[in-house]
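User: What would this chain look like folded?
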Amino acid sequence: MKATFPLALIVLSAAFALPARADSGPLDWKPCSQGDPIGKELDRAGARCVELTVPLDHSRPAGRTIKLALSRLPATDRAHRIGALVLNSGGPGESTLGMPLQMRAAMKDVAARYDLIGLDPRFVGRSTPIDCGWPIGMWIRSAGPTRARFDRQVAVQRDLAERCARRHADVLPYANTRDTARDIDLVRRALGERRISFFGVSYGSYLGAVYTQMFPGRTDRVVMDSAGDPRTWGPRAMRGGEDEAERALSGWAKWAAERHGTYGLGDTRAAVLATVNKIVARKGPLRVGSHEVDSQTVPYILSIGPGDDRPAARAEFAATVRTLNEAAHGRPAVPGPQLEGFLRFVLTSAGSPLVSPTAAIVCGDRAAPRDPGVYWNDVQRSRTRHPLFGPLKNTIWPCAFWPNRPREPLTVIGNSTPALILSSTGDTATTYEGSRAMHRALTGSRLLTLRGATAHGIYGEYGNACVNTKVNAYLATGALPADSVCTPEP
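Assistant: Here's the prediction, encoded as structure tokens.
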């Protein structure tokens, strides 16, 4: 997808605009704890935190301001210090303040040479947060089996957008990735760094790519873990991942069939998938503990669970499907702690503080079609080939009714910034083809492939020694490896 010349010109001119000014003077680092577990853990690790004041509107540096929350786990090997490594854990909408703790563990000895910087992006976590007061925690729902169910979903999405407008109409125009990238450059300046290194996961990879496009020459070492296709970022980014979701579900079904004695879901892959299909086809909501799980929520649960092929994750998802199967047969279905937490997040207001800024940023980056009929037609077209996941990945989001249009065009990514891109071939969230598209857009990048794995966010957490070793070598030396392949370990 190529940008027209006028659009490219707009993006190019914006990229070289100077960012607005932030607080002047040295940063006043203080203890991180605000009575919360993450803050206490940061303090115990020797980290310190600070608030940085930045403009709400970067084109009006003397106008209204907001606060950004930063954490810093300082380099301990000051004699060989490389610089500051700014982190983003994705979402968008995930707090990154505590991420230096996980990064230090994954980086091992290399961590001693970096100041690890956790930054809650604008309107996320401690950074002047947005909370739309939504009665449900996640807006992603399947379109459902009928037009009536889809129309109900349209009404829900319209209500969510209107609730956000009533609470935050004054700041929603400034919730977007480009303004977040401008914030990052003010953080760079406040830290006193000529260049920063950057590590982003999932959406964090897109944020990093936007930063390199808007502020060329201001990065040192860049790692993009589980990157997506920058051309498709926005309210319809889930489209096109149906095949990966189905392959992951099928791979899990084979694993569960081999453990039929434990989970009782079927002794062949086909039998397990038949059990899943019967759960989906069950008329009426399923009673799971104190929650009602309906035909529009079940596909979302089934899309998330198989996305991690590690044994513990597969076992947890098998337990979830077993619970749903009990409910589908009208038997008491008591969720375990993880499923209970997930359902509370998705079905109640508990998740609103996290998913509100997620929606604000997604909707603020790219305009969505306003006509519900567009989504319904796409849903119907997708059903034939993808009856389970097509109606989920093509359905309507609150962006269709968002109160403001994006203030700027979507950033066109295309530069030669050196970067190391990590991707698993079975990623169901940001697909392998998406990472390859990012690799093509960043002509100076290298692609490290974890072949034969289903995983999203593979550095450190997934535990692949080959991946971790190559990433740490790059962070230590700055020398990009050639495009290369790692494989799962037994």
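The longest strand covers residues 65-73. If you want, I can go into more detail on any region.
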